[in-house]
Amino acid sequence: MAGSLPQLDPGWVDDILLAGAADDACLHIGEPVSRAELRGLVAERHGALADAGLRRGGSVALCLAPSLAFITNLLASWRIGAQASLLDHRLTAYETDVALKRLLPQVVVAAEHSTGGPLRGFAEITEHVRAYPGQPAATSHAVIQLSSGSTGPSKIIARDAASLVAEVKRYTQIDGVPRGGERIVSLASMVHVLGLVGGLLYSLHAGVNLTIPARMTADGILSAVAAGSRPTTLLGVPFHIELLASVQEPPKLPQLTGMTTGGELVRADVHDAFVDRYDVRLGNMYGMTEVGVIATDLFGEHRPAVLPAPGLAVREEAGELHVSLPASPYLGDQDPSRWSDGWLHTRDAGTVEPGTGLVRVLGRRDSQVSVGGLKVDLTEVEHMLAALPEVTGAVVVHDHAIEAYLMLAEGAEVSAVEREITIRLAAYKRPRRLHVVEQLPRTATGKLVRDQVVLRNQPVPNSEGTDHER
Amino acid sequence: MTVPGGPRRSDVIAMLATYGNRQPEQVTEAIDSLELAWLMHQIEQRYGRLDVDDDMFARMSTVTGVLDVLNDLKVGSSHD
Q1: Which residue from A226, A439, A466, B25 lies 20 to 30 Å from A190 (Cα-Cα)?
Q2: Beta strands in A202-354, from DSSP E residues, in sequence order
Q3: Pairwise CA distance, residues A233 & A240, whole Å
Q4: ∠ CA A161-A166-A168 to the nearest 5 degrees?
Q5: CB contact, 8 Å: A89 with chain B?
Q6: Nearest-CA neighbor of A139 among A407, A329, A382?
């Protein structure tokens, strides 16, 4: 089962991530985990995965919620020298099945038993390892993730170990990043790049304690900060700023030095409310799954702009931001509109100021939206709906929430559409409301109209109810 | 059977509407995890800290579910 392609020596896991004093309190996930304990757990998982047939050059898929199990299985996979595909635990069984058939791992790790639930920062998982009829890794990449879609099926995004190590080292050169002996309380999912590299991998490398709150409520987050005395940075997404800024009388937290968010820009009024309440700096990070952190403003000096990280170049081309990247991060068919000649096309509109190099991110140029930090491609949702036999046309829009306007086939019931949605789409991608309309309006050139004011005024079929909430 | 003094449907919807500065009619019956975190905070600011376990959180995926859980917890009826 071993692959035959050259890879970065798996010793990078021990050297870059796990090295350090045995009694270093490197993680807090419900309870403290020392570096020595973590090394022991990773070694144990290494043995279990090897027993299941995973070898250097092999492939494994992890379908695990944020958890100690996710961390130990991921590090063990890399330590074996295998390629790890990360599947979001929120995917439905159908979506997971589709993803596995595309990725073809040799081993799958999923939760056999899991405590958890809404608003839990992490799950307690007993994992189950099984063989899958896949094949060894076709490339030397260390981690595989699926993008949200963005016209056509989701892209397979791949990064090699050298890229991950380079990003960890990039963080060490950015002013304002927590240093050894400090603490990060992370609200950002460790299954996605911000929480994975900016949180987990960087913390392990730099000797920063990484704490995951048990509860992702305002109270749960602030309690987690209060429970430790090290200088602490909160890492999250803009939703968390809004949540924390709404706490009327937050406790005094002298250990809190600042908060950093990735994802969309925080609104000015929310930013001001947070800084006012907590009297700490609010920093911003811009990055992508394909490359990790691209640009930062950790002291809020350049808001709303960000400064490119050391070792990366950012340019603007026809209103779109491009980031320097030596090789395409996509597997499969290459699309020059996504990466070409050493530049990754971000699909973000933006500008780069000559001289200072300050980057302004102005929004997506495609149909991707952010739902609490999670990326959803509206076109993917729309295509899924339009392909259903019950649906003759669909438009999916986003304002506060994802909503869909549908034309139903003769005799079709919207409840059938709702059932399909539950099977085919993870909860965070689902339209919150389905509006059944008689006709979807089109422009003079025949394109579907996406203006929500126009859509809301479309007549509904006589025999149907009006809106269907999920 | 609603607890007297406890939150009514219109109260829960009004609290949910404060997330994203929405109108009450824009609030859907289904509640996602971000809205739930927001709502918990609004409820606790108004009624004090609640002891909600995983099962209760799982039931709070709709406005009706929220009202049921708050009723079970007798929110709004205790005298501190």
Answers
A1: A226
A2: 209-212, 232-236, 256-262, 281-288, 292-297, 307-308, 314-317, 320-324, 339-340, 343-352
A3: 13
A4: 95
A5: no
A6: A329
- Measured in angstroms, the CA of A353 and the nearest CA of chain B are apart by 32
Contact in structure between A119 and A95 (CB atoms under 8 Å): no
Angle, in degrees to the nearest 10, between helices B9-17 and B33-47: 110
Neighbours of A348 (CB within 10 A): 22
SS3 content of chain B, % helix, strand, coil (to 5): 55, 0, 45
- Give the amino acid at A438: E
Instruction: Choose among B55, B48, B40: nearest CA to B76.
Output: B48
Q: What is the mean pLDDT of each run of 10 residues along chain A (470 residues)?
A: 55 97 97 98 98 97 97 98 94 92 97 86 96 96 82 81 96 96 96 95 98 95 97 94 91 96 84 93 94 95 94 95 96 89 94 96 85 83 91 90 93 95 91 92 82 88 62
Going by their DSSP bridges, the two strands A467-469 and A433-436 should be labelled as antiparallel
What's this model's pTM, rounded to 2 decimal places? 0.88
Q: What is the ipTM of this complex?
A: 0.84
Tell me the CA distances in angstroms from A441 to A350, A452, A461, A463, one per residue in order.
Answer: 31, 11, 14, 20
Angstrom distances, CA of residue A40 to CA of A17, A43, A452, B3: 14, 5, 55, 52
Please report where in the chains the tokens 């050298």 appear, as a residue: A162
Contact A258, A298 (CB under 8 A): yes
pLDDT digits (tens, 9 = 90+) for A422-461: 999 988 899 989 999 999 988 877 788 888 888 988 888 8
Please name the helix (run of DSSP H) or strand (run of DSSP E) that holds residue A77, with its range, or none.
helix A68-80
Tell me how far apart the alpha carbons of residues A171 and A149 are, in angstroms, rounded to a whole number. Answer: 28
Q: Which residues contact A75 (CB under 8 A, 6 or more apart)?
A: A13, A17, A18, A38, A42, A45
Contact check, Cβ <8 Å, B61/A118: yes
A103 three-class SS: helix
Q: Looking up tokens 């950093």, which residue turns up?
A: A260
